[in-house]
Amino acid sequence: MNQTMKSDRKYDVLCIGQAVIDCIIRGQEADKHRENVFRAERIELHIGGDAVNESIALTELGCRAGIACGVGPDSAGNLLRTELSRRGVNTDHITVMDSLVTPIAQLVVHQDGGRHSINSKATMLEGYIPAAEELEMDSASIVSFASLFRAPLDQAEIVKKLMETAKKAGAVISADTKLPTFREIKMEELAPVWPLVDYIFPNEREAAYYTGFTGRELTEDDFFEMTEIFRGSGIKNVIIKAGADGCYVNGQEGRFHLPALPVEVVDSTGAGDNFVAGFLTGVLKGENLSECAKRGRLRASQCISRMGASG
């Protein structure tokens, strides 16, 4: 078991990654009377993006969370900044750039709670580069790379610089992965910094993609083999989020499978981000991998029981 982390830093967790507005449609169906009209059970706007979801969940769980992201000087960006501040997230490192359009994601939620999304090129955040030396990483117990492989964390040299700075500052490094959209980094491009990563959280599709297991029906042995591939790169602890199948953990205290909690799924948006937030609260308390994973599982189950990633 680890020791409880010191609380004399400005942030318990500093989250770096994407901030977007989610337009969520649940229960879309065609109107039988009109060809080009669709009906929906619900249509809602929520703030979202991995860094947003994590930071809000952490704050709700009693942690001091900050966010580093880029937005445009538009209504969507204003909404994000206002709502994050209202929720208690430190917004000192939100960069507003005239050249950016704040990303808006279209999410369609199916009746089983699953979803598909549509993202625009605005998510590339062209021109936004987080300045490692300005992010106060020496004031964070944990630095969470909340959307690794998505902008601004989809350029190898930027990721390397940020991770090296975070580790030099003495922070624990967490990385929540994403599938690439418009730009792609190969796993091997980050080989020099993988040993700096303390926890990585791919979901089952991301894990399969980055380890070469795409296109097959995954078994328990496959999940653990994928965790071994990640660990073979030098990453200390690997947690694969497998949705209804729970999570597969392989780290410095051994490996195990933790089943999901049985809950009614309303919307799976942000479940993985909430899992990470719950897990990291356990890390901050010095708990072992099993207890951290249980915290993540509980938070994810609460998330999927409601619409949106942050309630």
Report on this structure.
The protein is of the alpha/beta class and 311 residues long. The protein has a single domain, classed as 3-Layer(aba) Sandwich (UDP-N-acetylmuramoyl-L-alanine:D-glutamate ligase). The chain is 28% helix and 26% strand. It has 7 helices and 15 strands. The strands form 3 sheets. A 9-stranded mixed β-sheet has the order 7-6-1-10-11-12-13-14-15, sandwiched between helices. It has a 4-stranded mixed β-sheet with strand order 5-2-8-9. The longest helix has 15 residues, at 289-303. It is globular, with a radius of gyration of 19 Å. The two termini are 32 Å apart.
At the fold tier of CATH, the topology name is: UDP-N-acetylmuramoyl-L-alanine:D-glutamate ligase
Separation, N- and C-terminal Cα atoms: 32 Å
For the record, what CATH class applies?
Answer: Alpha Beta
Q: Number of folding domains? A: 1
Shape: globular
Give the SSE layout:
Elements: E1 11-16, E2 20-26, E3 29-30, E4 38-39, E5 42-48, H1 50-60, E6 65-71, H2 75-86, E7 90-96, E8 104-109, E9 115-118, E10 140-148, H3 156-168, E11 172-177, E12 199-200, H4 204-211, H5 220-232, E13 237-241, E14 247-251, E15 254-258, H6 271-284, H7 289-303
Parallel strand pairs: 1-6, 1-10, 2-8, 6-7, 10-11, 11-12, 12-13
Antiparallel strand pairs: 2-5, 3-4, 8-9, 13-14, 14-15
